[in-house]
């Protein structure tokens, strides 16, 4: 034996390539013609050969696996059985090819019973559509692995099984993943291609709108489908079918009736329960699987206070209820792996069907010619029966008789046209009109029974000859005309559609489907709390309950000794918030992006959420209207601690990049922003200082600045040591001092009458020169300004007590700080308030109290007010926020109050997957 040296690199390269090609061609990739991998083809062929047809009895799966493994597929029995099981699963195949009896697995990932328990047979569509005509020389055969028998290279499929049932497989260096389609639509597409081979992919896409998954569900958008059909690749977004239903009184639930293709339903439920426990989705109270043999039904019960559509969008986002199918339409075409578009697949199938029909026709023609050949000999014998009988009687033995029959020329007579039709090489009528019999014909004459010589039998031979002759003519016409061949192809496609097509299960939704994060966020009022050192959090407003004025409050944030709560406001989760920094930059963020917290948690540092520079802090925040279309008619007013003010269009801050935007240039190192609010030209501006001064002037008195880098204009002239602590936007007032004084007396008398419960107030009881119409108009314009000092005292004052002046003045008195036990206190906040509002006060120790505004007395500008918050000696108010009336009837308490948790934490005991028991056949 010769031995040749081979480098290990060459040997590894050659061996690996051989292995790779074996996997690609003989294992992992389907053939574009019948859409089957070798293992599936061998299973179907073995079942056909063994007679396990759709109209026969079921056979044990172990016997089928044994036949396949013993004759065609020399691999493990588990691989064969797994492939066979998949072909029987109606949730895996759009058109199942095997009729299984027993436990063949489930959508929950349950394994099938062992092959010794289950039984199977061919589905009718597999027998009549994939294996039909396989015995008519329609496809090529090859030796099996031990050359003991033959197996088909491809099945003569009568429909594009590659598209109808799809395929999936991983080869070496390549993979395929073809989605299933609707049989009727695919056959319509094939007919359209036969009618017009130049049809475009877009036109085919009109006929075949997209995949049709066996589990139903929804497909979002058509763009990805079009990409997959044009390029062979695309990511198709699938959703389960779900709807919101009322399961009990005021109890809503999401009912899932269809799941995406290839999604394990049990794992999907586990994932939903997991994200509910982890608070990724809040509002789910129970999950039940009520699926049975009639269909899928998963019930996801919700809390009464949540929006079901939001929860459903969150399920689409965070659970397998929405997933994608990565189409990669790779298949073997002419024995080579090729990435195919939709038209290429249909074109290859139609070309294959033309070949099958042609080969079948040739096979039938040859069979007809063989029979006609015999019948021609019999017809010659019948036409010359007397001479034939004499010759046979004179012969000494059958061999001599056969030779004499073959060597003698027999008159063709009326059989000559049939002989010409048969057109056999060397078997024609000579110039004298004689025909020479072949050995086959001679044998048939010698075996002719005497009863065939009767007149009736002679007529039968003649009739059969005519029938065979017409068949031969028909087959020759098919082979001579491609149009006739295509007509047969069309008729077979129509027959397939009428027999096996079913309605579409998967719905395709038009449009581009995507959701922003807002679609996943429940609309809820939030209390946003910011500490002095820059920690921020959001807490649901429902966490806090109202207390009467003078209460002790409750903990609003856990703070360090050097930190305290500096700002608090209430807004919706979808509200955009502008963050203005100490260096005049502005940043933008939605409330739902702020870190959630509990009343006692500290929150998250703003420096970790915004791109702040070294030493830069957030000085003020401004919630904005949600609808940006309203911004064009609105202005934003800036106020600084040094008394500067500037007006810009709100639209200047519509687009704020992630790295921020310049908002305002500040005056010196001691200046910082104390307020930024939206306003219109019909409003007034009120600036208040910590020394108890304030000034009111119209918005129109401040020109609109086109730039964002100026310092603005002077709003109030400050005394030494004084600084602006708040800016308020209030209704504009045109009344002179006399009118304002008369109205204030009138309004005070009216309040006293109402408080004394004296019935309806009589306007005539107060002497005034103002008309009732003017009084009513002023009452609509009047606002009450809430002023609160650091030591917890506060009051409400009518806006008519603050006269309108020009900007830049020194202002007037607002709060008398000279009286009271705390002579060093300062004003902490001044803003307009409504009778039905609540206020929330926060101390530097992290204490918080919420109380209704109607408890705060209405007093004049020069008064000190009433006690709103009993602060400790070493404690002071640092922030006050207005809470608009939420319409809830809340209990009021005089003392501290514990949190009312309307959103209890979901535990593993609260959410469980309750699976209904379904009886099944078989199993191990």
TrEMBL record:
Q: Name one GO molecular function term.
A: DNA topoisomerase type II (double strand cut, ATP-hydrolyzing) activity
Enzyme class, broadest EC rank: isomerase
Q: Where is the active site?
A: 117
Q: Which family does it belong to?
A: Belongs to the type II topoisomerase GyrA/ParC subunit family.
Q: What is the lineage of its organism?
A: Bacteria, Pseudomonadati, Pseudomonadota, Alphaproteobacteria, Rhodospirillales
Name the CDD domains for this protein. TOP4c (cd00187)
Q: Beyond the main fields, what else does the record say?
A: Few gyrases are as efficient as E.coli at forming negative supercoils. Not all organisms have 2 type II topoisomerases; in organisms with a single type II topoisomerase this enzyme also has to decatenate newly replicated chromosomes.
EC numbers for this chain: 5.6.2.2
- Which residue intervals define the domain Topo IIA-type catalytic in the entry? 29-526
Q: Which InterPro entries match?
A: GyrA (IPR005743), GyrA/parC_rep (IPR006691), Gyrase/topoIV_suA_C (IPR035516), Topo_IIA-like_dom_sf (IPR013760), Topo_IIA_A/C_ab (IPR013758), Topo_IIA_A_a_sf (IPR013757), Topo_IIA_dom_A (IPR002205), Type_II_DNA_Topoisomerases (IPR050220)
Look up the domain of life of the source: Bacteria
**Motif (GyrA-box) spans which residues?**
547-553
Annotated region Disordered: where? 882-924
> What keywords does the record list, in alphabetical order?
ATP-binding, Cytoplasm, DNA-binding, Isomerase, Nucleotide-binding, Topoisomerase
Which compartments does it reside in?
Cytoplasm
Residues spanning the membrane: none
As for what it does, the entry says: A type II topoisomerase that negatively supercoils closed circular double-stranded (ds) DNA in an ATP-dependent manner to modulate DNA topology and maintain chromosomes in an underwound state. Negative supercoiling favors strand separation, and DNA replication, transcription, recombination and repair, all of which involve strand separation. Also able to catalyze the interconversion of other topological isomers of dsDNA rings, including catenanes and knotted rings. Type II topoisomerases break and join 2 DNA strands simultaneously in an ATP-dependent manner.
Which species is the source of this protein? Kiloniella antarctica
**Compositionally biased spans, kind Polar residues:** 909-918
Q: Where is the composition biased (Acidic residues)?
A: 885-908
NCBIfam families the record matches: gyrA (TIGR01063), PRK05560.1 (NF004043), PRK05561.1 (NF004044)
The protein in question is named DNA gyrase subunit A
